[in-house]
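Contributing new records

If you add data, match the layout below exactly. Sequence lines come first and carry their own label; structure lines follow with theirs. Keep one chain per record. Anything else will be rejected by the validation script.
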Amino acid sequence: MKHFTKTKILLVFALFIHTPHDLAHARALSPHKAIYKIKTETVEQGSQLLNIEGDLLFSFAQTCEGWITDHKFTLFYDYQEQPSMKMTSDISSVESFDASDFQFTTIRKQNDVPYEETKGHLYYDSGPDNDGTPNGTYVTYTSPENGTYKLPTRPLLPAQHTKTLLQHAIKGNRYVTLPLFDGTNEQGTMDVTAFISVENDNKYRLKENETLYQFDLAFFQQNSKIEEAEYEMTIYMHKSGIITYMLIDYGEFTMQQSLKAYEELSGESNCTNDYNVQDNLENKQTIEGS
């Protein structure tokens, strides 16, 4: 199913190369919450997997200093020769507007039993300072293991990545590759290649005649020698950053994510409650139950 490879992308990249720092600011992203229905669209013949179905509760809120993002997935997996399984993922992050600070937590459960946790903090150190630390981007993990690592390059963070994609789309660019760090696992930075077009199907528009962009994305592990993308997705997104449809291709199966309901949020209402930003992450139940 997947069809993007690094070689194909490099051929296109040689013809169309852009840098996000040269582009004008896109319209501000819209704080909102949304409910998405998730289900499998295709499954490869011979797979033990029969079906995946569930939902996503999504929240994208604004504070004085940045963005708070929450994803709450509840998915049910059906198999041919083994019992069905409930999988939940609770993914939260706090991203500063200047993209210099990013706190992230992911907790995954199987049949309500926690089995995986990733928790950490990305920050940009302008250094060098009194302790001799050189400047650069660092990630400190506190789960599953403690450790601090310097990233080879400064990646884009999720909200920053979304805004940059929209900047390219609004300007009329049709191709871009951008580095992304989202903290959802220990893989680190991904190189995300995007092919951009305008979607004309009113089915996925929030309002008639509103511009809707289609992004065909391929995710590659940065500095990996593997040619094929880790996974691919197609998303339909408005200038506000609201996604109405997504199709994810994992190779063995594809899943679609369709918007069922959404509500725009006021950014100003959270502005006096910045102390809740830390609580949003620190008060989450961890695998250890602390």
